[in-house]
Amino acid sequence: MKWQILVDGKPVDIDNGHLNGIREVEPGVYSVILGGRAFEVRVLPESDSWNVNVDGRIFSVEVNNPRDSSLGSRTARGSGPQSVTAPMPGKVIRVLVAQGETVETGQGLVVVEAMKMQNEMKAARPGRIVAVRVQAGETVGAGDTLVVFE
């Protein structure tokens, strides 16, 4: 399947083979291997597109879903419950939200310390906190669910 993305307004075709070199290392942060080079890519959702930071350069990106039959419409940024998970084993330093609280895109949810670095897990989209599954001081493993929001 081919995807078409617009990078700063210019179309770029992506097929599934390009996706093999992409791994999400934490919510909104990806490790990308392309042409033998490794990049850290940070995705910052906007109202109708994404801003993508690659090595300090910011690009505006829109994704056109090939399964979307209406050419002018944009794909929704996910709906229903979304789990925020620990990217690697660590210790929960702070829980920044409570169950029932409303969060905005980019708002901090939980701070996890791993390998002497503190990582703030952030909301990828607006929503309401359904469950907080950890508390400060707790040890978590890679992939453990920290917060669920919808």
Overall description:
With 150 residues, this protein is mainly β. It contains no helices and 15 strands. The protein has strands at residues 2-7, 10-15, 22-26, 29-34, 37-45, 50-54, 57-64, 82-85, 90-95, 102-103, 108-114, 117-122, 127-132, 139-140, 145-149. It is globular and about 45 Å long. Residues 68-77 have low confidence and may be disordered.
In brief:
With 150 residues, the chain is an all-beta fold. The chain has two domains: 2-64, no CATH class; 82-149, RNA polymerase II/Efflux pump adaptor protein, barrel-sandwich hybrid domain (OB fold (Dihydrolipoamide Acetyltransferase, E2P), Beta Barrel). The chain has strands spanning 2-7, 10-15, 22-26, 29-34, 37-45, 50-54, 57-64, 82-85, 90-95, 102-103, 108-114, 117-122, 127-132, 139-140, 145-149.
